[in-house]
Specification:
Length: about 230
Amino acid sequence: MFELLPGVGVLLPDGAGTLRFGTDEVATREALAGLGRVRDPGGLDAGWMCTVQWGDFELTACAGGGRRDPQAGDLPMAEVVLSRAGPPRRPLPGRAPVGRGAPGPGWRGPAAVPVVLDGIDLFGYPAAEVLEALGEDRHPGLRPQAAVPGGYLPGISFRDEPPPESGAPDLARYEDMWTTGRDDWQLERTGSGYLVVRKGDPPMHLLICHDALADQVVANMLAAGVEVVAG
C-alpha cells in the first residue's frame, strides 16, 4: 500500500520507508530503490526525475527547477506522480471526462495496490466516487488526472503545497519538440489522448508533471505535424 502523507511525502509499500518531500536526488533514488530498479524517464520540466514500478503502479518523483540548473541533483523533491501501469481498456468515445484536464487511459477496474489518502483508496473505486469522498476541501497538493465516465483514475500527482502560479514551467523550454527537434519525437494515440514519446531503442515516454503544460505541449506538437502513432 502507498499512503499519501500531507506535509511529509509518501509511505512506501513493503517496508521500503517514506519518500519525503524536500530530499535531494540521491536520497530519493535510495528510497525508491527499495521497490525495484530506478529509471530516468527523461523529463524536461524538472531538475531531475526518477521512476520505479511497483505492482500495477509507476511512481515518479520530480524536483523543481529546470534542466539548465548547474546543481540539479541538489534540488529538493517537490512532487510525486502515481500512474497506473499496464494496458488499460479503451475509453468510450465521445464521452466527457471526470476530473482535471484531458482524460487518461480508460481504466475500468480497481488497482491491485491501494493508494490511500485520509483513509480513501484513490484507485479502489470509480473516479466520481473518489472525488465525491474527497470533497471540495481535499488537500490542495493532490491533483487527480481526468478519468473517462464510469472509469477509475489513471493517475494522480501529489505535492506538499499546490504549485505556485509564478513558478509555472515555461512552454518555450519544450519548443524544440515541435520545431527543430520534432523528428526526435512522436505522439502515441491512446484513444483518450496522447502520450509524448522520445524516439529511441527503447522509446521513452516523457512525463510532464503539470497538466496544463502537458496539454499545451501536445497541442503544439499536433499543430506542427509531429508524427502520431497508434498506442
